Amino acid sequence: MDMGTALHDLIQKALGNVVTVLADWPCTFCGTVFGMQKKPSHCTKCGSAILIRKEHKVSLRRISGSIDDVYVIEIDGIEYAIVIDYKTTSASNLSKKKANPDVGYVEQISTYLRCVKKSHPEINWLGWALIYLDRANLTNFVIVFDHEEIPARVLKRYETDHLAILEGTVADDFAPIVKNRPCTPKNAPDHHKFCNFRNWCTQPKPEALTSVVNMVYTKIKPKLPLEQYLEEVKR
To answer: Based on the domain organization, do 91 and 170 belong to the same domain?
Structure first.
């Protein structure tokens, strides 16, 4: 069982199963999948009533992932959907996370919102919500909500980075990532987790980042001295 499903089950129990969700519902008997909808009463193909919730997978060009949950709320008689992502933290961090949610998480969930808007335009999408839960008490949580999807220009940069990460074999292949802005300990995004240089860039020692920039600097040929370029990408 994945983390999202486990948290979904626990939260649903804590809330008394009062939250309506959209998800994928594969039939355990014949395998038919009912995608991005409320739980059907039965499988329309074989008649089985045993359908198990499954996280909905999203993809847009080369970006992909799984949505923890999609909540449905009703406003003035109209149903709206909200993309949900669960994150656990300590009780002492909840107020901090609400005031300053992790940038990487915001970028991730706003990307998911853009994906489902493209794949399911028939649904009224209201926005996204990050739910930070106290890992010691899941009934204690804060919610960060927003209407905005990730801008197309940012998604394009992610796509460029992602392609370099997946297909890169030598230092020259990673030039687009460093040109966009290499990771630092404070800004390492989730979509760089498979990058061969991630540990080098995110080490707290500045010479580690310098070594990565040095490797591709001559290939990028920016109109800046190396020292100035290094300062720019570290910001």
So the answer is: no
